[in-house]
Amino acid sequence: MEAMVRDVRQDLGMPNLLFIQVGLATGQGRFVDLVRKAQTAVRAPNLRYVDAKGLTVANDNTHLTTQAEVRLGAMLARGGATVSGRCQLTPTTSAQTLIHLAQCGKMNPAKISF
Q1: Is the pTM of this model over 0.70?
Q2: Which has more pLDDT, 99 or 29?
Q3: Where residue 81 falls among pLDDT bands split at 50, 70, 90?
Q4: How far apart are the C-alpha atoms of 66 and 68, rounded to whole Å?
Q5: What is each CA distance from 71 to 10, 14, 75, 86, in whole angstroms?
Q6: Which residues have CB under 8 Å from 37's CB, separation 6+?
Q7: Could you give the 3-state DSSP secondary structure of residue 67?
Q8: Which of 32, 37, 77, 91 has its CA 20 to 30 A from that of 51?
Q9: Torsion of CA 114, 97, 73, 40, to 10 degrees
């Protein structure tokens, strides 16, 4: 992962480009713990780890449900805000409002209900 982050930043000429890595949500498969451990061990500047474990997994036992994806989106927005410090957005849609609230630390993604 470190090499990919370094190479993408170099290719784009953006040495401080933010990367947010999502930790596996599913508990299925014999290598899940190994992968999650490797994910949390990655170290690079401006790289954040957002853990999806505990979010609701769909019936396919692999992907998140729609509601869980929305929660994850808010978690990702908040993870990016810790680096960018952005809270000056003027939201124009419901999704942008959720992102804005998460970035400004005014919303707990776990409490979103549908």
Answers
A1: no
A2: 29
A3: low
A4: 5
A5: 31, 29, 6, 19
A6: none
A7: helix
A8: 91
A9: -130
Determine the 3-state secondary structure of 38 from DSSP: helix
Q: What's the pLDDT at 46?
A: 87
d(CA 40, CA 43): 8
> Domains of the chain, with CATH numbers?
2-111 (3.40.50.1110)
- How would DSSP label each residue in the chain? -HHHHHHHHHHHT-TT--EEEEEP----STTHHHHHHHHHH---TTEEEEE-TTSPB-TTSSSBPHHHHHHHHHHHHHHHHHHH--------SHHHHHHHHHHTT---GGG---
Residues 6+ apart with CB under 8 A from 57: 25, 26, 63, 64, 65, 68
Q: Which residue has the tokens 């599913």?
A: 26
Q: Look at residue 76 and tell me whether its pLDDT is greater than 50.
A: yes
Q: Is pLDDT of 86 > 60?
A: no
